[in-house]
Amino acid sequence: MALAWLSVLSLFFMSLVLSQPVDENGVQSTPATSGLSFPWSRLRLPRYIVPHHYRLLLHPNLTELSFKGSVQIQIDVQNSTNWVVLHSKDLKILQATVLDPNFSHLSDKTLPVLHNPSHEQIGIFSPRVLTSGHKYFLYIEFWGELSEGFSGFYKSTYRTSTGESRTLASTHFEPTSARMAFPCFDEPSFKANFSVRIRRTSEHISLSNMPVVSVARRGLFEDRFHPSVKMSTYLVAFIICDFKSVTTTTSSGVQVSIYASAEKWPQTTYALEVAVKMMDFYEKYFDIPYPLPKQDLIAIPDFQSGAMENWGLTTYRETSLLVDPLTSCIADKVWVTMVIGHELAHQWFGNLVTMEWWNDIWLNEGFAKYMEFISVEATYPELRVDEYLLDTCFAAFGYDSMNSSRPICSPAETPTQIEQMFDTISYEKGACVLHMLRHFLTDEVFQSGIVRYLRKFSYRNTHNQDLWDSLSNYLFSGDHLDLAAMMNTWTLQKGIPLVTVSRKGPYLLLRQERFLTTVMPTDPLWSTLQQGFLWHIPLTFTTDTSSTIRRHLMTAPTDSIYIGSEVNWVKVNTDMTGYYVVHYEDDGWEKMAKVLLENHTALSYKDRTHLIHNAFQLVTAGHLPLNKALDLIGYLRLETHTVPLLKGLGYLELFYRNVERRKETVLTKKLGLYILRFFRAVIDQQTWTDLGSVSERRLRSEVLSLACHLNDPVCVQRARQTFNDWLLSNYTLNLPTDVAEMVYSVGARDDRGWASLFHLYNISLSEAQKNRIMFALTCSTDPNKLKSLLELSLEGKVIRSQDLSSVILMVARNPQGSHLAWNFVIKNWDALVQKFLASNSIRNIIIGTTRQFSSREDLANVQLFFESIKDQANQLSATQLALDNLEKNIRWCERNLETLRAWLDEQRN
Q: Is residue 175 within 8 Å of residue 415, measured between CB atoms?
């Protein structure tokens, strides 16, 4: 009955609008509002009006790239008022009116609508008071243009293999862009139900959060979707496209479908398998049935982030969902599996239970990031994703060790501030803190607490404290643990602790302080930046006398643990489950180096990797000489596990690229020859195939890639011959996917190879292959070729705008391209801001281009540019992160280059 009422009302109001005077743009004139001023001054909406149900009608025109629509919102008035204030951005309001519960008008005149563009709000004035305790219906008709960017209701295009251009319309609303598609109460705590109708032509389909309940035809088709469950506006989604799908059902009967453009439809098979496994896993793990009847996953050609968790209609970049059996490598499959695991975790963690406000976005993203690892480990153990968790935490360490870091929970009010919360701290640090908590509480306690949290707060909003309360039924050493007090030290203060370990007889002495890589212990600022920092650290350790993991909760600046006199060495932070750096004072690092050299398997591969990472981080922070860290990895000739091997190799590669960019020709050559000589056996063991375990394939890809970059004659000759054979086959020879990027990169060194690859980039239907080709193209040493790639990315036709930031970073990584990329950013700053300010891409561009620099001259240049864009720079936390990172690079070179030279000379003797 209510749906019928809506149809009648829609027709009535449409006729009402048409009877009103309109301006030359077709926008209805509103009554004089000279006596009215905007009634609300805050960024966040007033709480005296609460939405309950949206009835939304949308009619997009994919030819004119515009849309019109209407929304009827059932509202509950908490305090008597004449005003309704809600969000709207870039929409033309054609008509607004308020009805009482019987659908009678409160006014016989068109209601005044006031705009506050700076806050993205509109205010609708009702001459009759809306009375507290009553329900009303707010009805608005509106018009808008499909966005040219990647937010709101936006257009996307793709080309078929015959060159035909196709257009679709998609949505991306997180965090604050639902207001670009329809007027709404666009804050996560205003949860409501949504009934959506979409008008379309016969050659298209439409998708939304819920399944279609009926299709009507009035010239156009009108799809009516089932009413949604109660959810936040940022999770609403609708798409109009001409895609094909593949469908199956989970064990509990949920319909799962994967959508892609027709020619890429064959690449959807793997995603369907993964999605079904993940849905089954999460229903069991969370012990809560998935509350919707279907789950659609769709590959959008233009999509800026990796994916988005819209409830029942998750959207993905094509590289995050599609797997091409011929061109996707094992890393692509791991990525797709992890991303699907992330978005489907959100269906419970984030969608079912949502943070109250964006300052706690880590409750969504940190959990989903961590659940990637738990879910994939359970469903695809052969992918060995536990090996990737270490790198996730290392990435968080890198950001968190700079003074410009921030707490996991940070204030955020403006859309720009909110967007910046979607960063390494919310995702990676959030995941690693949860990993530490899970190991501290045990798997069983952690999982039962999560289930308790999800059940208690289903369809509601939460704060940090709600999670700690749900997990707090835990005893540690016989005492009730104040979990909130413990976890607040990890979420409400920034930074990462450094635990310094020393021995005094049978006691292990511990000292905690803040770990900083941007300020040295000898700097005057050091003591000031240490004040007020204290963590409750769940320590773990093993010794040479016992492999049993011992646990200790450190809550004071200093502490001691009795371990006995017979203990020779102690490894603190077992398997790196804790989020802290460890420094072994006195002869501690020599003992660790001796253990690795004499019996490295006495420590787990995670412990070996942790030691390597800690040592080189302590070098950067000024706590350890570089030669000690380099001596530590001398054991790697004996190492057979991929992860510590790649960690040690990764640091040597980092140093090589730094000195290469600084044009330290002699040092670059010496270091390159040392790496090739030291890892000769590992390089020679690699086969040019796709055979082996995930770990072996990962090692193959990275080791051979570095060998060719270092101009190893055997590697380069093999790659060049393989590339030439591939060219002669007219691209029909199937290259081993694990080495394809490296083969392309060597092939792109000459003009013919570069041109051939660029041609294939234009016609390939595999986004995975296109990514590898683009990486190869950006490896060119020809500045003109690099410039052309940057310009084409900015233009957005041959190379999509969604890939602009990654192309900039690829060029910046090239020693011949680092200044080219930075100068391109300076020259095109306004265009980049217009495209990317409301996204993570602008942060990635700022940090990614400047992290290549390590000279005082470059620092001055970057500071000068940031000063010239001061107003924007003040809004972007990335500018200070970039300066901190650059300063860190400079200090590292000033302190360590001579040590590196001397150490390399010693290795030759």
A: yes
Which DSSP string do the residues of 687-700 spell out, in sequence order?
A: -SSS-S-HHHHHHH
Based on its alpha-carbon atoms, the radius of gyration of the chain, rounded to whole angstroms, reads 29
Token pair belonging to 234:
């940022």
* Residue 360 amino acid letter: D
> Half-sphere exposure (CA, 13 Å, Cβ side) for 249?
7
- DSSP assignments along 236-301, one per residue: --EEEE--EEEEEE-TT--EEEEEE-GGGGGGGHHHHHHHHHHHHHHHHHHTS--SSSEEEEEEES
- The domains of the chain, with CATH numbers, are 43-242 (2.60.40.1730), 496-514+531-615 (2.60.40.1910), 797-908 (no CATH)
Q: Which of helix, strand or coil describes residue 542?
A: strand
Query: Mean pLDDT of successive 10-residue segments in the chain (909 residues)?
Result: 38 33 34 76 97 98 98 97 97 96 84 97 96 96 95 96 95 97 98 98 97 94 98 98 98 98 97 98 98 98 95 98 96 98 98 98 97 98 96 96 96 93 96 97 94 97 95 67 94 98 96 95 91 97 93 97 95 97 96 97 97 98 96 96 97 96 94 96 96 96 97 97 97 95 97 97 96 98 97 95 96 96 96 80 93 95 94 86 95 96 89
Candidates 281, 347, 291, 282; CA nearest to 314 is 347
Q: In 310-340, which positions are buried (b, 16+ CB within 10 angstroms) versus exposed (e)?
A: bbbbbbbbbbbbbbbeebbbbbbbbbbbbbb
Query: For the segment 626-660, what is each residue's pLDDT rounded down to a tens digit?
Result: 999 999 999 999 999 999 999 999 999 999 999 99
Strand 193-200 to strand 49-61: parallel, antiparallel, or no bridges (unpaired)? parallel
Question: Cα–Cα distance between 301 and 155 in angstroms, integer?
Answer: 10
Cβ neighbour number for residue 655 with a 10 Å cutoff? 22
Residue 250 corresponds to which amino acid?
A: T
Other Cβ atoms within 10 Å of 723 Cβ, number: 26
Q: How many helices (DSSP H) and strands (DSSP E) are in the chain?
A: 31, 30
What three-state secondary structure class fits 805? helix
**Token duo for residue 491:** 């979420």
For residue 313, what are the contacts with CB-CB under 8 A and spacing of at least 6? 207, 208, 209, 237, 238, 239, 296, 298
Q: Which residue has the tokens 């009482």?
A: 100
Residues in CB range of 791: below 8 A, 6 or more apart: none
Cα 535 to Cα 401: distance, rounded to the nearest angstrom:
15
**59 annotated binding-site participant:** no
- Residue 613 labelled as part of a binding site: no
Alpha carbon distance 748, 775 (integer Å): 10
**Is the preceding omega at residue 293 within 30 degrees of 0, hence cis?**
no
What's the number of CA atoms in the CB half-sphere (13 Å) around residue 827?
Answer: 11
Instruction: Give residue 190's identity as a one-letter amino acid code.
Output: F
Residue 309's pLDDT is 98
How many Cβ atoms from other residues are within 10 Å of residue 149's Cβ?
Answer: 20
- Token pair for 324: 């091409």
Task: Report the alpha-carbon distance of residue 776 to residue 401 in Å, rounded.
Answer: 33
Q: Check if the beta carbon of residue 257 is closer than 8 Å to that of residue 294.
A: yes
Query: Can you tell me the distance from the alpha carbon of 14 to that of 274, in angstroms, rounded to the nearest whole number?
Result: 46
Q: Is the dihedral of CA 799, 805, 807, 808 positive or negative?
A: positive
Provide the CA 360 distance to its chain's centre, in angstroms: 16
Q: How far apart are CA 485 and CA 727, in angstroms?
A: 63
Q: Please identify every residue annotated as catalytic.
A: 343
Q: What is the average pLDDT value for the chain, to the nearest integer?
A: 93
> How many angstroms separate the CA atoms of 184 and 167, rounded?
26
Q: Can you tell me whether residue 58 is helix, strand or coil?
A: strand
Please provide the size of the chain in residues: 909
Alpha-carbon dihedral sign for residues 812, 818, 822, 827: negative
Is 172 annotated in a binding site? The answer is no
